[in-house]
Write a structure and sequence with these properties.
There is one protein chain. 45% of the residues lie in helices and 15% in strands. It is α/β, with parallel strands linked by helices. Strands 1-2-3-4-5-6-7-8 form an eight-stranded parallel barrel, surrounded by six helices. It binds 2-phosphoglycolic acid. 2-phosphoglycolic acid binds next to strand 8.
């Protein structure tokens, strides 16, 4: 059985008090209301990870992810945070290759492959983000484009390593735009990516990898998306900043 996951990517939002308040609300609502076995992963700004960790200690269905890590192991890289540092404070996951990092920080598939390697070497599971732009969806082989993101950043991994990776398909045209991909559009891509993984690693491995959908997920759209056979949950941006909305997304199964 694949893991059901809802991850909340807070991006560069919330000051400390707000981050703590949001976490407390989420933990309380989940305790009172969530009956499924979904894993809830909070991705706060890195500066709050240690604090937020204390607030989820007694909530076994909650985990933490960083939003990024360096591709380098350690050394003179001012301002960077290594995967080993994340591991040392008990962070279990790290977002790698979010489209905003690809776009604004020029992160290439090759650099992302290095980030995946250093995360895995330190026991931190990558949540590997992929997805096409609107122009690519209209003009090109957009499925091939996204498959290639997996090929170039993940397909050097061993089977065992790949099994520690979560994939998040996030069409760029749906991120922060209010334009959710339809459940059919998302399912088409998720099935194609699972098939692509199967072609390299075999069907059994492909069946075990959780593939999340991201891009304007709301409580209203989550149920239909999560009911699709190859969609194992969501990576949620804007709606993860509101405790009521995010909890309703977690309850969508
Ligand atoms: P959104 O962001 O839900 O605000 O579209 C998703 C993401 O960027 O992970």
């Amino acid at each position: 059985m694949r893991k059901k996951i809802v991850a909340g990517n807070w991006k560069m939002n919330k000051v400390l008090d707000e981050a703590v308040a949001l976490t407390s609300e989420l933990v309380n609502m989940a305790k009172d209301e969530v009956q499924n076995d979904a894993k809830i992963i909070l991705c706060p700004p890195a500066i709050y990870l240690t604090t937020i960790k204390k607030y989820i200690e007694d909530a076994p269905n909650f985990s933490l992810a960083a939003q990024n890590c360096s591709d380098k192991v350690s050394g003179a890289f001012t301002g960077e945070i290594s995967a080993q540092m994340l591991q040392s404070i008990g962070v279990e996951y790290v977002l790698i290759g979010h489209s905003e990092r690809r776009q604004y920080f020029n992160e290439s598939n090759a650099v992302l492959a290095e980030k995946v390697n250093t995360a895995l070497a330190n026991g931190v599971s990558p949540i590997f983000c992929c997805g096409e732009s609107l122009q690519q969806r209209q003009n090109e082989d957009y499925v091939g484009f996204v498959k290639n993101q997996l090929t170039e950043s993940l397909f050097h991994l061993s089977e065992e390593q790949l099994l520690s990776v979560v994939i998040a398909y996030e069409p760029i045209w749906a991120i922060g735009t209010g334009l959710t991909a339809s459940a059919l559009q998302a399912q088409e891509m998720h099935a194609a990516l699972r098939e692509h993984i199967a072609s390299k690693y075999g069907a059994d491995v492909a069946q075990e990898i959780s593939i999340l959908y991201g891009g304007s997920v709301t409580a209203a759209s989550a149920a239909e998306l999560f009911a699709s056979p190859d969609i194992d949950g969501g990576l949620v941006g804007g709606a993860s900043l509101k405790s009521r909305e995010f909890t309703n997304i977690v309850k969508a199964w």
